[in-house]
């Protein structure tokens, strides 16, 4: 996905996808879903004693505080609300080499949400199935994506527009980690799939905490610069 030609095509297709008009409520669902996940995740019981011990290590008061603080910060960015895919990992992209066409598939998590969340969620998936978050794209790679997302003439995109989308995306980067961390906790209790969902929670929440200071500082600095003109 990081290969420049492919990344540019994904960006162009995602921009078109975000223009889709779906009948019904246009209210963003992200934070509704996160708070629902948090409520369900905080009252689980595991039959396996080892799983229960690991589960009891989690501070849901801390997570609730983090969710509220991140929501308040992201609200200040006034990110556009679009119809989002919300699960744009490599397995949900199909590339037809003969026709040189790219297709998005699997829309079960699709909903109206924030533009930056959909892009950040995709960038987090650069980690691959090995979940190596060191593969998260650097600023230059992100700007290449943004240029192709924002305009049919990528070279003409203004620097301030790139900076704004960079801030928006990397603020919602944190929301992506919280969303899938809480989702994983629920799956740890209900899913029949043989996968360490509890471990996945700790991985995603750990990455949230690792990236928190950078992402919060980025957003706060950007908002401060807007206020100062």
Automatic annotation (TrEMBL):
One of its GO terms (molecular function) is ethanolamine kinase activity. This is ethanolamine kinase. It comes from Aegilops tauschii subsp. strangulata. InterPro entries: Kinase-like_dom_sf. Pathway: Phospholipid metabolism; phosphatidylethanolamine biosynthesis; phosphatidylethanolamine from ethanolamine: step 1/3. Belongs to the choline/ethanolamine kinase family. PANTHER family: CHOLINE/ETHANOALAMINE KINASE (PTHR22603), ETHANOLAMINE KINASE (PTHR22603:SF66). Its EC number is 2.7.1.82.
């Amino acid at each position: 996905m990081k290969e420049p030609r492919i990344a540019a095509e994904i960006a162009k297709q995602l921009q078109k996808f975000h223009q889709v008009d779906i009948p019904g409520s246009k209210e963003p669902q992200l934070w509704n879903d996160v708070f629902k996940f948090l409520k369900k995740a905080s009252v689980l019981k595991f039959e396996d004693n080892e799983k229960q011990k690991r589960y009891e290590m989690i501070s849901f008061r801390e997570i609730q505080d983090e969710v509220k603080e991140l929501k308040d910060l992201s609200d200040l960015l006034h990110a556009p609300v679009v119809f989002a895919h919300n699960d744009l990992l490599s397995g949900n992209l199909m590339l037809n080499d003969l026709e040189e066409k790219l297709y998005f598939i699997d829309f079960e998590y699709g909903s109206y949400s924030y533009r930056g969340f959909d892009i950040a969620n995709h960038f987090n998936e650069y980690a691959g199935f090995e979940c190596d978050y060191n593969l998260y794209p650097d600023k230059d790679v992100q700007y290449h994506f943004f240029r192709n997302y924002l305009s049919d003439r990528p070279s003409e995109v203004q620097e301030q527009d790139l900076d704004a989308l960079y801030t928006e995306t990397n603020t919602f980067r944190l929301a992506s980690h919280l969303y899938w961390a809480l989702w994983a906790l629920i799956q740890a209790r209900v899913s029949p799939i043989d996968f360490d969902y509890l471990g996945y929670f700790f991985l995603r929440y750990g990455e949230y905490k690792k990236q928190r200071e950078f992402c919060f500082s980025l957003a706060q600095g950007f908002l401060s610069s807007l206020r100062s003109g």
